[in-house]
Amino acid sequence: MIAPSDLFDLQGLTHAALFTGVDLAWDALDRIKEFCAAAVAEAGPSGPLLRQGGDVVGRTVVLHQGRVHRDGFELLGGDPTKGLMRVRLQGREVSDAAVVHAGAVIFDDAVHIAPGAVVEPGALIKGPSFIGPGSEVRQGAYLRGGCLVGRGCVVGHTTEMKNAAMLDGAKAGHFAYLGDSILGREVNLGAGTKLANLKMVPSPHRVKAGGVTYQITRRKFGAIMGDRTETGCNSVLNPGVVLGPCCMVAPCVSVPGGYHPSRAIIR
Q1: Alpha-carbon distance 231 to 247, whole Å?
Q2: Largest CA distance in the chain
Q3: What is the C-alpha to C-alpha distance for residues 153 and 144, in angstroms, rounded to an integer?
Q4: What is the per-residue DSSP string for 122-134?
Q5: Catalytic residue list
Q6: 24 CB-near residues (< 8 Å, 6+ apart)
């Protein structure tokens, strides 16, 4: 059995409840959208505050303790993923403010931007989507809904997400596609990595591990990537890839569907 605990350290994980009652790690894919909507509702949607005047954020704003500040602040800089971003708000320096830059598009209300997060110009976020504390959604990112982003993550430049979860510290910094996938803690995708989620010829996905072959009939199945796994630039993970913790994928490699055990080097 490939349980979530075989791939992810759930202790202290921001969204560990996603895996409650889940026996096989990929079964969590069916829960992401509903879980995301519930997380947004519980934390409080930022969408209604940001969408006043339309979908496009017309000027850079600061979110702090349930309020939108359109003036009276100074951005002091710092890396949000390391908890170093600072904002001077009404003369007082704070570390728990989120920044949404002018030109970001918040497409509907079911979006939560957590304290310390940054959304850059040109990012487009559809709900339900949860952007976790200290995470960064960079210029041109496209979050198509059902996007669960943990603490200290990066959704990079022109990176697209759909029905996907990034656990704490996961980073997809440049030109990536994350469809129907789960990235474990501290996973890093090299530039141009694509997590393909749709077979050209419909057929069950087969994942063999521990002498057991699992047949998975879901139509869309990207990749499940264990904690601290890394991919090289321009690699492709074919539909139905399951990578154990601490795997390494070389640049420009096409990874076949199926299970690859912990610390595998794929080249």
Answers
A1: 8
A2: 63
A3: 17
A4: T-EEPSSEEE-TT
A5: 174
A6: 1, 2, 3, 214
Q: Which residues pair with 258 in a beta bridge?
A: 241
How far is the CA of 25 from the CAs of 8, 57, 201, 241, 247, in angstroms? Answer: 9, 37, 24, 12, 17
- Cis previous bond, 128, omega within 30: yes
Pairing of strands 67-69, 61-64: antiparallel
Q: If you search the block for the tokens 């889940």, which residue do you land on?
A: 22
- Is residue 240 within 8 A of residue 205, CB to CB? The reply is yes
* pTM listed for this prediction: 0.96
Q: Candidates 1.10.3370.10, 2.160.10.10, 3.30.360.10, 1.20.58.100; correct CATH number of 4-266?
A: 2.160.10.10
CB atoms within 10 A of CB 76: 13
Domain ranges of the chain: 4-266
- Which of 31, 35, 25 lies closest to 224 in space, CA to CA? 25
Q: Burial level of 67, CB count in 10 A (0-12/13-18/19+)? A: exposed
What pLDDT, in 10s, does the model give residues 170-217? 999 999 999 999 999 999 999 999 999 999 999 999 999 988 999 999
Yes or no: say if 154 and 136 are a contact pair by the CB < 8 Å rule. yes
CA 104 to chain centre: 17
Tens of pLDDT along 135-183? 999 999 999 999 999 999 999 999 999 999 999 999 999 999 999 999 9
Over residues 102-145, the pLDDT tens digits come to 999 999 999 999 999 999 999 999 999 999 999 999 999 999 99
Tokens representing residue 243 in the block: 């990578």
Buried b (16+ CB within 10 A) or exposed e, 131-168: bbbbbbbbebbbbbbbbbbbbbbbbbbebbbbbbbbbb
Spatial strand order of the sheet with 73-77 comes to 73-77, 86-89, 92-94
